[in-house]
Amino acid sequence: MRLEVRGEVPLALTVLAPAGAIVLALMLTAIPLLWAEVPVLRAYGLIFEGALGSRFALTETLARATPLIFTGLAAAVAFRAKLWNIGAEGQLYVGALSAVAIGSGIFAASPFVMIPLVLVAGALAGALLMLIPTLLKLRLGVDEVVTTLLLNFIVLLFVSMMIEGPMKDPMGMGWPQTEPIIEQAALPKLIAKTRVHAGLLLALLAGAAVWVLVQRTTWGLEMRAVGANPAAARFAGMPVGRVVLRVGLLSGALAGLAGVGEVAGLKGYLTLDLSPGFGYSGIVVAMLAQLNALAVIAAALFVAVVFVGADFMSRSIGVSSYLANLIVATSLLTMLLASLATRYRIRMK
Amino acid sequence: MTASAEPGPEGVVLRLRGITKRFGDLVANNAIDLDLTAGEILALLGENGAGKTTLMNILFGHYLADEGEILVAGPNSGLQPLKAGSPSAALAAGIGMVHQHFTLAENLSVLDNILLGTEPLWRPLQKRREARDKLASLMGQAGLQVGLEVVVSSLSVGERQRVEILKALYRDARILILDEPTAVLTPQEVERLFETLRRLASHGLSVVFISHKLGEVLDISDRVTVLRAGRIVADLPSTGTDRAHLAETMVGRPIPSTIRSPMEPGEVLLALDRVRVPGTDRRTGLAETILRLQRHEIIGVAGVSGNGQAALAGLICGLVRHDAGEMRLFGRRAVIGSPLVMVTAGVGRIPEDRLDDGVVGDMEVWENLLLEDYRQSRFQYAGFIRQAEAQAHARDVIEGFDIRCPGPRAITRLLSGGNIQKLILGRVLDRRPDLILANQPARGLDVGAVTYVHQRLLEARERGAGIILISEDLDELLTLSDRVAVMYRGHLSPTMPTESVTIRQLGLMMAGQKAEEAEIDAA
Questions:
Q1: Which of A210, B30, B79, B312 has the highest CB neighbour number within 10 Å of its CB?
Q2: What is the pLDDT of residues A102-159, one digit of tens each?
Q3: Helix, strand, or coil (residue B382)
Q4: Between A219, A221, A238, which is nearest B367 by CB?
Q5: B339/A235 Cβ within 8 A
Q6: DSSP string, B257-276
Q7: From the CB of residue A19, how many other CB atoms can be counted at a distance below 10 Å?
Q8: What is the SS3 assignment for B411?
Q9: Are B342 and A237 an interchain contact pair (Cβ–Cβ within 8 Å)?
Q10: Residue B148: partners with Cβ closer than 8 Å, 6 or more residues away
């Protein structure tokens, strides 16, 4: 048995494969659900209800999708150029940290000044963090998978130090958290009394912008060529090192923006549980989207649906939240299988 | 000799009957019938993808045929069916195969390589003395001499091939299959190989010689079987046929002949004055090199691969920098080695490895055609690619260079080798470069595509371009070049007018002789 690359992908398959993946995921997760003596159909009903079943559910899903779009884009951009940035989690945190540093009352100005400032600060911090592994890769050939991954832990410890020390909120009753973002620097809510904030709008814009950049510009042409065949790109006269550097900065900036959105749009202050692994989930989002920036939006929404729905289900029925994680993981795996099936055909020998 | 020791009917040692092999919709072998008699050298001629290798892989048990049967004569019996899909059965039946890429363990001695796989693993004492005696007599018979204790990694390509042949003979092969055996050899080594094969055939060994080189096929074989698109289209004795006829049979249509008309060379485009390129562990550098290329001329660079051609090509492509000497490009001193500088200076570069350096396989055809030109204001505005312009350009080049593909948006990697080379050719020549570096531009291509590439290069020469043509194919070099030079261990010989050199002389120089000595020896 072996895999062959499909020349052309039939349209029906691109629709049927993801649908089949969802069905398969539901069937597979039925086994542990039955084992846990949970009524399977009711559980699925609850997932749907919790993620899509009401206005509130929908807004929760959108709020959850927002950081996933950013981190998904960060991974998609980098992976396209074969720069394996596994450090979106760390870049998210430094983005959030700088947003808090600038936006929590050192000075105050109108929102038209404060909001862009906070966004730029977060993007810049993420980009600068990503600069380290990118330069190490370009100058010394250090594997960026290792450096970006390990930087995540360094950043988390650094953030922990800051929120326990210099940036600790004196009014926080001893909790390890920073001072809150002031009102002028907070991202406005898109829908009143929900958790959907302007970050969603920015994420959608970023998705469109990244798509245009990758597909329609000379920089995008360079990025794709360098990713797919660096030797040919170099032979053709492309500045390979500069392209990789550009990609690294952009990827870090996008992940940094995810942190800004979470802290300035949702939580208000920075704690160590700001992100339940959005940086890592972004990798899955990017893979599901096959690194296409517009598809990242759809993939992030899908992942958010599963997260939010499974969370709601486990709370409603009172089963362990591990079950929710299991459902999330299974659907991601079957989705990846489906995307594999659309790209390759299996041939029996 | 008893009657039972006779080979099969009419001396047939191998018989293929109705061999058919399909890969999906593609019929790689279509009802192939073939007979091989004892002591015969049969050439299997065909273009890439004609089904030669598939057929031999079926014979050797790597593939299973969908239909048909294989009969082999045993040493003491008539024709018997060969167990399909089993290389060990093929070996036991006396079929030996020398692959294009050798299958030797580099860190073992010649003797160990030959014995490898012929002895049970658990026997502590190998019968080395017997093996040595047998090999000595085999070497005498075949006229092959190889040091048995030498480690394979220190052998030349030609010697390695001799080890492969010995390996097959040691296993009592009575049918020897050689897959493109001359591709890696110098002309002298080819001659030696042919002598060996003739001697072996005179002792009763049957040889199947797979090739797409017409001259060799006519030279060595008794009989030629021509494959085209999986079918046998001709089966004729080698005497009484000629290259033109064979080429036409192989391709299925007449081949225009390539003629280089004499031209007066013009201004100097590229001048290398004692230019040196440092070597690396894996690559030979360029020793102090002197070269002058003028308009309207093609300089051919011959040499066995790995003798510094990569350094010369890299220099002109802008991939490597020289550390001594002076390089003048279009009359100006050129210092900075960077592909971009060379591209913008108007140097056309056809890389040796088309898939690695030439194209980005996963990108679309129009994007690959844009790879060197996307910065031009014609194709971009403020960094945004002018899609319509770029696609129109791609359609022009696709048409102008006869690139067979579904359209500008086709994925490049799905094109055939010939069409990918036409794509690169189109990208390079459409810019009308004055200086062209063509590194193995026709290697591995079909006869039709080869002719096409050659004619395009000659057109560029007529238009006024100067071309440096690096090739291992001496026929190609002598057809296209106005002057030829030979590279050996990083040294480029002075150029010689093509009319004054012979293949034999070039072959001696490729093996390291100086031009004057080679002239004397070749005479």
A1: B312
A2: 998 888 889 999 999 999 999 999 999 999 999 999 999 999 999 999 999 999 999 9
A3: coil
A4: A221
A5: yes
A6: PP--------SEEEEEEEEE
A7: 10
A8: strand
A9: yes
A10: B109, B110, B111, B114, B132, B135
